[in-house]
Amino acid sequence: MNIELDCITKRFGAVVANDGISMTIAGGTIHGLLGENGAGKTTLMKILSGYQSCDAGTITLDGQAVRLGSPAEAIRAGIGMLHQDPLDVPQLSVLDNFMLGREGGWHLRRRAARRDLDALCRRFGFVLDPEATVGSLTVGERQQLELVRLLSLGIRTIILDEPTTGISAPQKALLFETLQRLAGEGLTVIFVSHKLDEVRQLCSRATVLRRGRVAGEVCAPFSDEELVTLMFDQCLERSPRRRVPLGAPALTLQDASIRTYRLTVRDLSLSVCAGEVLGLAGLEGSGQSLFLQACAGILPLASGTLTIAGHDMTHQPYRRFLEAGVAFVPAARLEEGLIPGLTICEHVALAADGDGFVIRWPAAEAQAAEAIRAFNVVGTPHTAVEELSGGNQQRALLALLPEDLNLLLMEHPTRGLDIESADWIWSQLLQRRDRGTAIVFTSTDLDELVENSDRIVVFSGGVMSTPVDAGCITCEELGHLIGGRVA
Ligand SMILES: Nc1ncnc2c1ncn2[C@@H]1O[C@H](COP(=O)(O)OP(=O)(O)O)[C@@H](O)[C@H]1O
Ligand SMILES: [Mg+2]
Fold this sequence. Notes:
Largest sheet: 7 strands, mixed
Number of strands: 21
Bound molecules: adenosine-5'-diphosphate, magnesium ion
C-alpha cells in the first residue's frame, strides 16, 4: 500500500505537534520515522491510524484520498497501529483479545479465531497460550498478540510506535525478523523510533521529524552524521553564559546505583555545588529520570551514598528530602505535580506549612493572587489547574515551590511550552541559581541543555558519562554523544 501524507497539521493548544508534514511511504517497504521525543511522531501516526483527527491536510492511500474517522475505519482501509502502551484488555484471555474487532456470530467465530491465532503464531514462531489472561503476559508477548490480531483483520500497513521499549533482546530479534518477513510479503511497515541503530538495522528509508516538521529524508545505508544532524537542532549564536561563584556541594553521590526492573544505573559519583546548573542529556529511558528520582528521595539507592548539603540522606524517607530543601518538578505536570480539579488557591493552601489540618483560606487566597501576579499566570485564584495552558501550569508549579531551596530537580522544565514561556521559566530558574540553589534538569532540547547548564552529563543505557563543560561543547557534538558516537 502506497501512502501519501500531505500537509498534515495538528495543534494542541499553543503546541503545533504536526506542522504541515508531507511524506510518502512506498508499499512493501519498512519506512522509519525518526525524531527526538516530542518531535510529533506519535501524533502523526495516530492521525494515520484514525485515533486522532488532524486540523488540516490529506491522507492518500494507493492514490485515493481517504478520511479515517476512527481506528475501525483505518483498519477497514488496511492500516493498523501497534501503540507504545498496549491497548489490549488485561483481564481478558489471549483468545478474547485476539477476537476484538472481529465480526460475525460469537461461537462460530471463537473456533475460527482459535485456528487463525494458532496458524499465525506458528507462522511467526510466537508462543501464546490462547487461554492465558493478557495481564500475565510480558510486554513483548502482548505486542506479538496485537500484531497477529491486526494481521488477522487483514491490514496491509502496520505502524509500530517505539516497539522495542520494554521487550527482551530475543523478543526484539524475533520482532525484527517478523517485520522483515512481512515487508518481503508486501506489507508496508512504518517503524517509529528515536533509536538510530534500530532504524539503521531495519529500514530502507527514513523520514526525520524535528519539532513537528520534516527535517529530512534519508535512504539506506544511513550515515550517523546525517541522521544526527537532522534529528537535533543546530545551535544559534550563543551569548556568553553568566556564571555565579559556586558554593559548597549541594548534592553528592558516591558510587551510587539505582535498580529498577527495566534498567540499572550504576557507578554514579558526582557533586553539584550551590549555584551550579547540571544538565542531564540522553535518549529517553537511559537513566536520567531515575537519577532525578533518586536525588529527590523517591527511588532508593541500591548501593552507594547520597549527601544533600552535607547531610547523609542515603535511605532517608522523602519527607526528609523536603526538609533538606530538595524539590522535584516532574515532567508530567498535571499527573504528578498539580492536582486536577483543584484551583490555584487550593494548591497554595495545600503547599503552605499549615498548623495541622487548619487551612487559612483568606491567607491562601491572598497568596495565590500574589503568586499569580508575580509569576504572570493567566488565571485567577479560583481557576482549576487543568484549565491552565501548559506554560501557565509550569508557572503555577514554580510559584508553589519553596523560596530557598538547596537543590531543584526538574524533568523537561520547558517541554511543550511556547518560546516566550520557556524563556521566562529559565529566567526564574536562573534567579534561583543566583541565590545559591543547585539545579539539575533533564531535557531533550540540545539548545536548552547547552545554553543553561554549567556542566552536562550524558546518559546511555544506565551509564553516566563524565561531566563535560557546557561552555566547550556545541549542540552537534552533544548530539553525537547522545547518539552513542564519540564526536
Ligand atoms: N493529547 C495531547 N495534548 C496536548 N499535547 C500533546 C498531546 N499529544 C502530544 N502533545 C504534544 O505534541 C508534541 C508532539 O508529541 P508526540 O507526537 O507525542 O511526539 P513524539 O511521539 O515524537 O515524542 C509534544 O510537544 C507533546 O507534548
Ligand atoms: Mg511518541
